[in-house]
Model the fold of this input.
Amino acid sequence: MNSIERKSNKFIVRRPLLAYFVLSYTFFWGFLALIIAILSILRLQPDALPTWAMSIIVIFGSWMPNLAAVTVTGVLSGREGVRQLLGKFFVFRLAARWYLIALIPFALVFVAAGLFRLTRAAVPGNMGLPLAFWAGLIILNLLQGATGEEAGWRGFALPRLQKNHGPIKGSLILGIIWNFWHLPLWFLSGYAGLDLLNYILAFSVSIISLTFLLTWISSKTPNSLIPIVMAHFSFNASLNLVDTRGLGLGATLPLLAITAGIYLVIAIFVCSTSELFTQKPKGILIYLETDRE
Done:
């Protein structure tokens, strides 16, 4: 082990949570910078790539939080810590209600679509979606943000933030960090000017508010990431389903703005109902006990 590795490991051991956030940003933003550099050398625009290539790039990029979590956990607790962390993806024995609660985002986005259609001229919609759309919706959204991020955000970071700051303040910190992790994607969204500002605001309110719902679910199912992955998947996929790319129930930006308002109400409700957070996480594993933060 060279001196750089020793210094890196020392930093991880002393400040594991900070190290995780730094690595999550570095891995993800660095990966995007590498892709942009390669495209620049090849003189290609991102929209010139085939859909399957962009899907692979998106999937690989979204797994960077998990890679950061595995890296930090490996330094802290070795293979056993990594095994326990990733093992949360395979704990299925939960009360059935948590599988249903994890699907709340699907219901909420249809509420948003309904509100949109009440305030705008009716849109025809598109109920004849091909099988390929449904397969792509499920596979892509499951493999990218939902599965690729949650060993990091909720598996690694959230228990530590709850331990140090409690569920509400910890959720706010995590929500803000998780939100700005997406910053490069804001400028790749295709929006510009005022539309870009509206997109960033709606996106930020949605993500930070969603964090409180995910914290509640995680607090009640601390040994499993399955309902967290389902809820994250439901959030991502449901908006893709109802906007102009899917069922066509509304334009993406207005739907996202209405959805942000709904999630903000949900977050306020969760924070004001203390009973939702009464159960402290019981799934803080061996690797958490070694932390010094």
